[in-house]
Amino acid sequence: MPNPKLIIGTRGSALALTQTNTIADALRRVHLGLEVEIRTINTRGDATQAANVPLASFGEKGIFAKELETALLDGEIDLAVHSMKDLAHTMPPGLVLAAVPKREDPRDALIGSTLDSLRQGALVGTGSVRRRALFSSRRPDLRFLEIRGNIDTRLKKLEDGGYDAICLAAAGLKRLGLADRVTEYLDPEWFVPDPGQGALALQTRESDVQVRGLLSAVNDMASFVTTRAERGFLRAVGGSCQTPVGAHARHIDGGLMLRAMLVGDDGLMRRAEAGGAPGMAEELGARVAKMLR
Protein backbone atom coordinates (compact mmCIF):
# COMPACT_ATOMS: atom_id res chain seq x y z
CA MET A 1 0.00 0.00 0.00
CA PRO A 2 1.48 3.42 -0.94
CA ASN A 3 2.23 5.95 1.76
CA PRO A 4 -0.60 8.44 2.37
CA LYS A 5 -0.22 11.91 0.86
CA LEU A 6 -1.54 15.10 2.40
CA ILE A 7 -1.89 18.34 0.40
CA ILE A 8 -1.78 21.37 2.69
CA GLY A 9 -3.00 24.77 1.57
CA THR A 10 -1.65 28.01 3.00
CA ARG A 11 -1.18 31.66 2.27
CA GLY A 12 2.20 32.59 0.85
CA SER A 13 3.52 35.01 3.49
CA ALA A 14 6.66 34.17 5.46
CA LEU A 15 4.59 33.75 8.61
CA ALA A 16 1.97 31.53 6.96
CA LEU A 17 4.66 29.31 5.43
CA THR A 18 6.53 29.08 8.74
CA GLN A 19 3.34 28.03 10.50
CA THR A 20 2.44 25.52 7.81
CA ASN A 21 5.91 23.96 7.71
CA THR A 22 5.76 23.55 11.49
CA ILE A 23 2.50 21.63 11.13
CA ALA A 24 3.85 19.56 8.22
CA ASP A 25 6.94 18.60 10.27
CA ALA A 26 4.80 17.67 13.27
CA LEU A 27 2.58 15.44 11.11
CA ARG A 28 5.59 13.74 9.53
CA ARG A 29 7.01 13.00 12.99
CA VAL A 30 3.87 11.28 14.25
CA HIS A 31 2.90 9.62 10.95
CA LEU A 32 6.06 8.02 9.59
CA GLY A 33 6.06 7.79 5.81
CA LEU A 34 3.44 10.50 5.38
CA GLU A 35 4.04 12.48 2.18
CA VAL A 36 3.20 16.16 2.48
CA GLU A 37 2.83 18.73 -0.30
CA ILE A 38 2.40 22.42 0.49
CA ARG A 39 0.47 24.64 -1.92
CA THR A 40 0.31 28.42 -1.59
CA ILE A 41 -2.98 30.11 -2.35
CA ASN A 42 -3.46 33.85 -2.75
CA THR A 43 -6.43 35.24 -0.84
CA ARG A 44 -8.48 38.39 -1.23
CA GLY A 45 -6.84 39.72 1.90
CA ASP A 46 -3.37 39.21 0.43
CA ALA A 47 -4.35 40.91 -2.82
CA THR A 48 -5.34 44.11 -1.00
CA GLN A 49 -2.28 44.37 1.28
CA ALA A 50 -0.19 46.62 -0.97
CA ALA A 51 -3.03 49.12 -1.40
CA ASN A 52 -3.31 49.44 2.41
CA VAL A 53 -7.09 48.95 2.19
CA PRO A 54 -8.51 49.13 5.75
CA LEU A 55 -9.53 45.70 7.01
CA ALA A 56 -12.62 47.18 8.63
CA SER A 57 -13.88 48.16 5.16
CA PHE A 58 -14.45 44.48 4.33
CA GLY A 59 -16.98 44.02 7.11
CA GLU A 60 -16.88 40.26 7.53
CA LYS A 61 -13.96 38.24 8.83
CA GLY A 62 -12.56 35.56 6.54
CA ILE A 63 -10.89 37.60 3.79
CA PHE A 64 -7.66 35.68 4.43
CA ALA A 65 -9.44 32.31 4.46
CA LYS A 66 -12.18 32.06 1.82
CA GLU A 67 -9.98 30.99 -1.09
CA LEU A 68 -8.40 28.28 1.08
CA GLU A 69 -11.85 27.08 2.11
CA THR A 70 -12.96 26.98 -1.52
CA ALA A 71 -9.91 24.87 -2.38
CA LEU A 72 -10.86 22.46 0.40
CA LEU A 73 -14.44 22.16 -0.76
CA ASP A 74 -13.29 21.64 -4.37
CA GLY A 75 -10.92 18.85 -3.29
CA GLU A 76 -7.79 20.70 -4.42
CA ILE A 77 -6.22 20.49 -0.94
CA ASP A 78 -6.81 18.21 2.05
CA LEU A 79 -5.98 20.61 4.86
CA ALA A 80 -5.88 24.38 5.30
CA VAL A 81 -3.67 25.96 7.94
CA HIS A 82 -5.05 29.29 9.19
CA SER A 83 -4.26 31.80 11.87
CA MET A 84 -7.44 31.20 13.82
CA LYS A 85 -8.21 34.89 14.28
CA ASP A 86 -8.57 35.15 10.48
CA LEU A 87 -11.50 32.71 10.37
CA ALA A 88 -15.12 33.80 10.23
CA HIS A 89 -17.10 32.81 13.31
CA THR A 90 -19.07 30.18 11.38
CA MET A 91 -17.54 27.47 9.18
CA PRO A 92 -18.88 26.97 5.65
CA PRO A 93 -21.09 23.85 5.38
CA GLY A 94 -18.96 20.78 4.79
CA LEU A 95 -15.86 22.06 6.61
CA VAL A 96 -14.75 21.45 10.17
CA LEU A 97 -12.09 22.68 12.58
CA ALA A 98 -10.30 19.36 13.01
CA ALA A 99 -7.43 20.34 15.32
CA VAL A 100 -5.80 23.20 17.20
CA PRO A 101 -2.08 22.69 17.93
CA LYS A 102 -0.57 24.09 21.13
CA ARG A 103 -1.26 27.79 21.19
CA GLU A 104 1.44 30.45 21.02
CA ASP A 105 1.34 33.67 23.08
CA PRO A 106 -2.14 35.24 22.63
CA ARG A 107 -1.08 38.74 23.69
CA ASP A 108 -0.76 41.89 21.61
CA ALA A 109 2.63 43.60 21.47
CA LEU A 110 3.77 47.19 21.01
CA ILE A 111 6.90 47.81 18.95
CA GLY A 112 8.69 51.15 19.05
CA SER A 113 7.58 52.38 22.48
CA THR A 114 5.78 51.37 25.62
CA LEU A 115 2.25 52.71 25.97
CA ASP A 116 3.15 55.00 28.86
CA SER A 117 6.20 56.38 27.01
CA LEU A 118 4.31 57.44 23.88
CA ARG A 119 4.25 61.22 23.45
CA GLN A 120 0.98 63.11 23.62
CA GLY A 121 -0.90 62.61 20.35
CA ALA A 122 1.47 59.89 19.16
CA LEU A 123 0.67 57.99 15.96
CA VAL A 124 0.12 54.25 16.38
CA GLY A 125 -0.03 51.91 13.42
CA THR A 126 -2.98 49.54 13.59
CA GLY A 127 -6.03 48.88 11.46
CA SER A 128 -7.78 46.83 14.15
CA VAL A 129 -10.92 48.48 15.55
CA ARG A 130 -10.45 46.38 18.71
CA ARG A 131 -6.90 47.64 19.29
CA ARG A 132 -7.90 51.24 18.60
CA ALA A 133 -10.75 51.05 21.11
CA LEU A 134 -8.58 49.47 23.80
CA PHE A 135 -5.73 51.95 23.35
CA SER A 136 -8.21 54.84 23.44
CA SER A 137 -9.67 53.58 26.72
CA ARG A 138 -6.28 54.24 28.37
CA ARG A 139 -4.83 56.90 26.07
CA PRO A 140 -7.59 58.94 24.38
CA ASP A 141 -4.96 61.33 23.03
CA LEU A 142 -3.46 58.76 20.66
CA ARG A 143 -3.96 58.90 16.90
CA PHE A 144 -4.18 55.85 14.65
CA LEU A 145 -3.19 55.11 11.08
CA GLU A 146 -3.94 52.02 9.01
CA ILE A 147 -0.99 49.69 8.53
CA ARG A 148 -1.08 46.55 6.39
CA GLY A 149 1.42 44.17 4.85
CA ASN A 150 3.41 41.28 6.24
CA ILE A 151 5.34 41.61 9.49
CA ASP A 152 8.62 42.63 7.86
CA THR A 153 6.82 45.30 5.82
CA ARG A 154 5.19 46.73 8.93
CA LEU A 155 8.45 46.79 10.85
CA LYS A 156 10.10 48.59 7.92
CA LYS A 157 7.30 51.21 7.90
CA LEU A 158 7.98 51.83 11.59
CA GLU A 159 11.73 52.13 10.98
CA ASP A 160 11.08 54.61 8.16
CA GLY A 161 9.41 56.94 10.66
CA GLY A 162 5.81 56.61 9.55
CA TYR A 163 4.63 55.76 13.06
CA ASP A 164 5.65 56.28 16.68
CA ALA A 165 4.75 52.66 17.43
CA ILE A 166 2.91 49.76 15.85
CA CYS A 167 0.85 46.98 17.41
CA LEU A 168 1.13 43.35 16.28
CA ALA A 169 0.19 39.92 17.58
CA ALA A 170 2.99 38.56 19.76
CA ALA A 171 2.55 35.08 18.30
CA GLY A 172 3.59 36.04 14.78
CA LEU A 173 6.70 37.83 16.01
CA LYS A 174 7.72 34.85 18.12
CA ARG A 175 7.14 32.34 15.33
CA LEU A 176 9.41 34.37 13.05
CA GLY A 177 12.12 34.74 15.70
CA LEU A 178 11.42 38.46 16.11
CA ALA A 179 10.45 38.55 19.78
CA ASP A 180 13.42 40.86 20.46
CA ARG A 181 11.57 43.60 18.54
CA VAL A 182 8.80 43.75 21.16
CA THR A 183 8.91 46.84 23.37
CA GLU A 184 5.91 45.94 25.53
CA TYR A 185 3.56 42.99 25.85
CA LEU A 186 0.06 44.24 26.59
CA ASP A 187 -1.64 42.61 29.56
CA PRO A 188 -4.65 40.58 28.33
CA GLU A 189 -6.52 41.40 31.53
CA TRP A 190 -7.23 44.84 30.06
CA PHE A 191 -6.00 44.59 26.46
CA VAL A 192 -8.21 41.65 25.60
CA PRO A 193 -6.89 39.74 22.54
CA ASP A 194 -8.74 38.91 19.36
CA PRO A 195 -10.69 35.63 19.71
CA GLY A 196 -8.32 32.81 18.72
CA GLN A 197 -5.23 35.04 18.59
CA GLY A 198 -2.02 33.02 18.85
CA ALA A 199 -3.72 29.78 17.80
CA LEU A 200 -3.57 27.89 14.50
CA ALA A 201 -6.71 26.35 13.02
CA LEU A 202 -6.38 23.11 11.05
CA GLN A 203 -9.43 22.95 8.81
CA THR A 204 -10.54 20.07 6.61
CA ARG A 205 -13.62 18.52 5.06
CA GLU A 206 -16.12 17.18 7.57
CA SER A 207 -16.48 13.99 5.53
CA ASP A 208 -12.73 13.27 5.34
CA VAL A 209 -12.39 10.78 8.17
CA GLN A 210 -8.81 9.83 7.22
CA VAL A 211 -7.47 13.38 7.35
CA ARG A 212 -9.34 14.12 10.56
CA GLY A 213 -7.69 11.06 12.08
CA LEU A 214 -4.25 12.22 11.00
CA LEU A 215 -4.81 15.66 12.50
CA SER A 216 -6.02 14.37 15.85
CA ALA A 217 -2.39 13.49 16.68
CA VAL A 218 -1.35 17.16 16.68
CA ASN A 219 -4.40 18.53 18.49
CA ASP A 220 -3.80 20.22 21.87
CA MET A 221 -6.99 19.81 23.85
CA ALA A 222 -6.31 22.75 26.18
CA SER A 223 -5.90 25.08 23.17
CA PHE A 224 -8.89 23.52 21.41
CA VAL A 225 -11.11 24.22 24.42
CA THR A 226 -10.01 27.81 25.10
CA THR A 227 -10.40 28.80 21.46
CA ARG A 228 -13.77 27.06 21.30
CA ALA A 229 -14.99 29.33 24.12
CA GLU A 230 -13.61 32.43 22.39
CA ARG A 231 -15.15 31.52 19.04
CA GLY A 232 -18.41 30.70 20.77
CA PHE A 233 -18.43 34.24 22.10
CA LEU A 234 -17.56 35.68 18.68
CA ARG A 235 -20.35 33.70 17.04
CA ALA A 236 -22.89 34.80 19.65
CA VAL A 237 -22.11 38.51 19.21
CA GLY A 238 -21.82 38.21 15.42
CA GLY A 239 -18.32 39.68 15.40
CA SER A 240 -16.82 41.03 12.16
CA CYS A 241 -13.83 43.18 11.12
CA GLN A 242 -15.97 46.22 12.01
CA THR A 243 -16.76 45.02 15.54
CA PRO A 244 -14.41 46.01 18.40
CA VAL A 245 -14.52 42.67 20.19
CA GLY A 246 -12.02 40.65 22.22
CA ALA A 247 -12.09 37.34 24.09
CA HIS A 248 -9.49 35.46 26.10
CA ALA A 249 -10.10 32.11 27.79
CA ARG A 250 -7.78 30.29 30.16
CA HIS A 251 -7.82 27.15 32.26
CA ILE A 252 -7.91 27.76 36.03
CA ASP A 253 -8.15 25.04 38.70
CA GLY A 254 -9.78 22.55 36.38
CA GLY A 255 -12.30 25.04 35.07
CA LEU A 256 -12.45 27.54 32.24
CA MET A 257 -12.54 31.33 32.62
CA LEU A 258 -13.50 33.61 29.76
CA ARG A 259 -12.88 37.36 29.74
CA ALA A 260 -14.37 39.45 26.93
CA MET A 261 -14.92 43.01 25.75
CA LEU A 262 -17.26 44.58 23.26
CA VAL A 263 -17.91 48.12 22.05
CA GLY A 264 -21.62 48.50 21.41
CA ASP A 265 -23.48 50.63 18.90
CA ASP A 266 -23.61 53.36 21.56
CA GLY A 267 -19.80 53.57 21.54
CA LEU A 268 -19.44 52.32 25.11
CA MET A 269 -16.96 49.58 25.96
CA ARG A 270 -18.35 46.77 28.06
CA ARG A 271 -16.42 43.98 29.75
CA ALA A 272 -17.52 40.71 31.29
CA GLU A 273 -15.98 37.56 32.73
CA ALA A 274 -17.44 34.21 33.71
CA GLY A 275 -16.37 30.64 34.37
CA GLY A 276 -17.65 27.25 33.36
CA ALA A 277 -16.76 23.64 32.68
CA PRO A 278 -14.27 22.96 29.85
CA GLY A 279 -16.80 20.59 28.30
CA MET A 280 -19.24 23.51 27.93
CA ALA A 281 -16.79 25.94 26.30
CA GLU A 282 -19.05 27.11 23.49
CA GLU A 283 -21.94 27.60 25.88
CA LEU A 284 -19.68 29.67 28.13
CA GLY A 285 -18.88 31.91 25.19
CA ALA A 286 -22.57 32.41 24.47
CA ARG A 287 -23.26 33.17 28.15
CA VAL A 288 -20.57 35.85 28.31
CA ALA A 289 -21.91 37.35 25.08
CA LYS A 290 -25.35 37.59 26.66
CA MET A 291 -23.83 39.46 29.61
CA LEU A 292 -22.56 42.14 27.22
CA ARG A 293 -25.75 42.69 25.26
From TrEMBL:
Pathway: Porphyrin-containing compound metabolism; protoporphyrin-IX biosynthesis; coproporphyrinogen-III from 5-aminolevulinate: step 2/4. Its cofactor is dipyrromethane. It catalyses: 4 porphobilinogen + H2O = hydroxymethylbilane + 4 NH4(+). The keyword Nucleotide-binding does not apply. Its EC number is 2.5.1.61. The modification S-(dipyrrolylmethanemethyl)cysteine is found at residue 241. Keywords: Porphyrin biosynthesis, Transferase. It comes from the Bacteria. Binds 1 dipyrromethane group covalently. Monomer. Belongs to the HMBS family. HAMAP family: Porphobil_deam (MF_00260). NCBIfam families: hemC. PANTHER family: PORPHOBILINOGEN DEAMINASE (PTHR11557). This is Porphobilinogen deaminase. The gene is hemC.
